[in-house]
């Protein structure tokens, strides 16, 4: 790897932070809409700057950050997706007290996620994880209901324990092997050693990251947080952190520091987490009546699919990036639609059954919902298909067919709850011609147009990624998302 | 090695506290004990030079990292206490077992 200046490695983040500053200023003057536009524009600018850097081969800057190639692409996706979600939250943020501050906070979460994806130092990783988590607690709490206060507290306590585990792992590695937290130095210090402290530190850091991902058995904060948070906040918090943390986990465990641990330990740790998360996520999802809670359980299953990759080693990095980019976009669509439905049906109790007839009375939202659910299942012609295809295909060719088998079975079961949403949205509820009550919005409701617009934009992206490989093959994915 | 044992013991005390204490403020304090034990290990290993790999510690890296983690712990305590205040205002209690609104 060659070297690039630190300023150019963090250029996307710096651009995005300018947007945050603008948002905070605008919020101070009470201009909420301007704050939202500022935060979103900063994120979009950061995404463009990160996208420009993707042509360079991956390079480490100042022993702190890695940029170029796939790392910059992931940063660009994280920031770009967040820009769309923030602008899609315009309706919610304008009507919320301190909405401008929340827009800035959402942007900070996204910037921290982008820094996680590009970190090449345990301390950088820790600080970005913490910035992301602290923003996340506040965003969950921003619904200001009893449930969201309690969920935020639970999220906080578990997240803080995870942080402590991470700090302990960091201290062990730092003190014993490197006298530095940079991957480059740790790697030099650890060369040729396989001692119990490495394994201890490996387990501590793996558990901490599994907490942040919400993998089973470290998942219990996720359903509460994503159900009781405002749906627009869940749209941001459900997918983007998972993408960033898994990329960081792959870089750390398969490339940077931990190739020195016994590969069979890594296989069993991550393989067991993957299988347990898939099984728990899909069966937990089947049992849910609440739409957003079901999505949270489905997120646990998706983390399970993603954790197949670390068990396979470094080459699976590209595959898992595709999987989680597709998941992050589809989850954002699914939660944004929840926000939209809440705006047009104020009496909605949040259940899947309560979505009855939404697809017919609100065709755009219904179409976005269909594509998001199909992509989450992994139907061909959507982005979700290619993610699962690549990850499970790689598992089979690496000889771990049992991981792929569990994944495919879990995907089949998952159609039970994703299909229930589509069934409710299209085949249940009042006939559009019959009773007008469900279709004509009550006079006092204002449809959340930004949310449904953002959802439709992301839907087109999901379809685009799903259909493009049929015409131009998959080689471009490998080129775009090479992490070398 | 004594340092490692002390740090691990402190960390276990903190973890035990988080898992068993029913009062939110005590849980927060236990989290701080966990973070403090990790910081102690870090700074202690740096100060005693107990490096297996024998790399030189230079330029105050250990101290800088330690201070960074203390700042991080302070930030975390700030949002944690803010959440506890929010809970106390809304539920009129800070005991975990009296918060049963969400399923878990």
If you had to describe this structure to a student in words, what would you say it looks like?
The complex is a heterodimer of chains A (484) and B (104). Chain A has a 3-stranded mixed sheet. About 2% of the residues of chain A have low confidence. The longest helix of chain A is centred in the middle third of the chain and has 33 residues. With 484 residues, chain A is mainly α. Chain A is globular. By secondary structure, chain B is mainly α. In chain B, 72% of the residues lie in helices and 0% in strands. Chain B has 3 helices and no strands. The radius of gyration of chain B is 17 Å and the shape is elongated. The mean pLDDT of chain B is 82. Chains A and B meet through α7, α8, α9 and α11 of A and α1, α2 and α3 of B.
Helices, strands, pairings?
The complex is a heterodimer of chains A (484) and B (104).
Chain A: E1 2-3, H1 6-9, H2 11-28, H3 32-52, E2 59-61, E3 65-67, H4 69-88, H5 90-94, H6 99-118, H7 122-141, H8 146-178, H9 183-190, H10 196-213, H11 221-228, H12 231-256, H13 263-286, H14 291-306, H15 308-312, H16 317-344, H17 358-361, H18 363-377, H19 383-397, H20 401-427, H21 449-472, H22 475-480
Parallel strand pairs in A: 1-2
Antiparallel strand pairs in A: 2-3
Chain B: H1 2-20, H2 24-48, H3 61-91
Features:
heterodimer, A: mainly alpha, 2 domains, three-stranded mixed sheet, 22 helices, B: 104 residues, Helix Hairpins, 3 helices, 72% helix, 0% strand
Task: Briefly say what this structure is.
The complex is a heterodimer of chains A (484) and B (104). Chain A is an all-alpha fold and 484 residues long. Chain A has 22 helices and three strands.
Structurally, the number of domains of chain A stands at 2
- Tell me, rounded to a whole number, the average pLDDT of chain B: 82
Shape of chain B: elongated
Indicate the mean pLDDT of chain A.
88
How many separate helices of chain B?
3
What portion of the residues of chain B fall into strands of 2 or more residues?
under 5%
**Which chain pair has the greatest contact?**
A-B, 47 and 47 residues
Percent helix range of chain A: over 70%
